[in-house]
Amino acid sequence: MPHDHDLHTERLRLRAVGTADRDELRRHWSEPDVCRFLFDGVPPTARETDVLIEDSARDFAAAGAGLWIARTTDGGPLIGTAGLRPLDDLGLEVYYSVAPEAWGKGYATEAAGAVVGHALGPLGLPFVLAEVDEANTASAAIVTRLGLVPYETVPGLLGPMTRYRRDAAPVTRTA
After folding, report:
1. Could you tell me if residue 120 is inside a domain?
2. Which of 22, 71, 160, 172 is the Cys-Cys partner for 134 at CB 3.0 to 4.6 Å?
3. What is the structure's pLDDT at 36?
C-alpha cells in the first residue's frame, strides 16, 4: 500500500521512516563506513535514533519532507536513507547514506536526486543545500552530479566542510 510521502525512481522506492524501521536503521547507521561522515564516526544511540524518527514524522506532517528509507523497487534489502533536514538556520540540506554493499551502483545519486527533485518541485523550496566533509570525495561528486555548487567552506568536527547550494529553476511567465 503506498504511503503519502513515497518517492519513486527507476530502481528505488523511498518511504518515510517509521518506528518499525528503528532496528534496521540502527544496524545501518552503526556500520563504520556509513556513520563515518553522517554522524562523525559515532553511531546514534537507540534514543537518538528514536528522536531522528520522531523528528522525521513531525517534519513530514508539518512540511512534507523528512527522512526516507530506500529499497529497490522489488522490496529488497535496505539500500540506505535520504532526507532533508535543517542546516543551521540556512535552509534545508539533502543528506543520505548507502549500505556499503550497495556502493558504486548510483543509488546515492538516485535517492538524493529524488529528494532534491521533491524539495525543488512539489515542496516549492527556493533552494536546497548540502554540507560535505572535505575528505568525503564520493559525496562531493554526488552533490555535484545533482547540480549543487560549492559556495563556502566551514570548520567541521572531522575537518573542513564544503557547503553546496542548488537554486530552484526560475519560473518564466508568458503574457
Report:
1. yes
2. 160
3. 87
Q: Write out pLDDT tens, residues 3-13.
A: 578 999 999 99
**Rg, Å, the chain Cα set:** 16
- Would you say the pTM of this structure is higher than 0.85? yes
Closest by alpha carbon to 98, among 28, 13, 5? 28
Number of separate domains in the chain: 1
For 100, residues 6+ apart whose C-beta sits below 8 A from its C-beta are 31, 33, 34
Which 3 state secondary structure label does DSSP give 68? Answer: strand
Domain of residue 49: give its range: 7-126
Distances (CA, A) of 138 to 65, 142, 173: 24, 6, 38
Q: Which residue from 97, 100, 17, 4 is spatially nearest to 56, judged by alpha carbons?
A: 17
Is there a domain that residue 91 lies in? yes
On whether the CB atoms of residues 81 and 117 are closer than 8 A, the answer is: no
